[in-house]
Design a protein that fits this description.
6-stranded parallel beta sheet; 40% strand; 6-stranded parallel β-barrel; mainly beta; 271 residues
């Protein structure tokens, strides 16, 4: 994360057009009201774009698609299920994920990138037996058991550029994984390198920006880069998949007649 700025935009709506091509949209007033219904309809290579909201559902990803939220600040998947997300492939990005009673994510394959997994009743992420899944540039915080678990120390799954802090069960950040590199959090893994276990200096309890003085700042995998070309940060606001779109913090909609509205939005940009 290189800079934070505030911006105000005024937008006039026009007729609804599909700007996304092969993208399935989820949200209020959109073609799909649930994430799972869009996943079921998607084909290999499609993107399921999830607009801001809290989605109270457990989802199953079992095909080669991208599930893309609108930022952890505004796009949340939560359930009382164990797990909230079952992942057997694809790519999951830009969400906040919680399971009240169990694991946030159980994965056998696929990529979990630039998500926040927090407040789960068990593991934040559980790589199941023989899992080939990986987690990258995520924040895993405040879960009841280990942040990331490799199926009972079975050494499954890999983690890179992640921050896993303040989890339960000995506060273990990464336990039993095949490999952990360039991560912040306590580690028990088959192989690990360039890991630290220190305070990442988050902006606040729910704002996961880090300052230039953070030990996680530009200390991620040097083979990966931030959107501005600098070395990857650890955590949500780092890496090649870091969301660069503005996050809206204030929205006012004013009808102006003739079927049009004026939208006044104040947003915070990450870069």
């Amino acid at each position: 994360m290189k800079s934070i700025l505030m911006l105000t935009a005024i937008v006039f709506t026009a007729a609804n057009t599909n700007l996304y091509g092969n993208t399935l949209k989820v949200g209020i007033g959109l073609p799909y009201s649930t994430i799972q219904s869009a996943i079921n309809a998607a084909g290999a290579g499609d993107t399921v774009k999830v607009f801001p909201g809290t989605y109270n559902e457990a989802i199953i990803i079992n095909k080669n698609i991208v599930i893309q939220g609108s930022g952890y600040e505004t796009t949340r998947i939560t359930s009382a299920n164990n797990p909230t997300v079952t992942m057997g492939g694809g790519k999951l990005m830009w969400f906040s994920i919680t399971s009240i009673s169990g694991d946030g994510i159980q994965a056998t394959a696929g990529l979990i990138t630039n998500d926040v997994i927090a407040g789960c009743g068990r593991y934040g992420v559980n790589f199941l037996q023989n899992s080939t899944a990986s987690i990258k540039n995520c924040v895993i915080v405040g879960n009841s058991s280990h942040g990331v678990e490799g199926y009972n120390n079975g050494y499954n799954g890999t983690a890179v550029n992640c921050i896993s802090r303040d989890n339960g069960e000995y506060s273990r950040g990464f336990d039993g994984l095949k490999g952990v590199t360039y991560c912040d959090g306590s580690v028990s893994a088959q192989s690990y390198s360039n890991t630290i276990d220190v305070d990442p200096m988050f902006a606040s309890g729910n704002d996961f920006h880090i300052p230039p003085t953070s030990p996680c700042y530009e200390t991620g995998n040097p083979a990966d880069v931030n959107p501005d070309g600098s070395r990857s940060d650890m955590g949500y606001f780092g890496g090649s998949d870091c969301p660069t779109f503005p996050v809206i913090t204030r929205l006012v909609i004013v009808p102006i007649g003739n079927g049009q509205v004026q939208i006044q939005a104040t947003a915070q940009a990450n870069y």
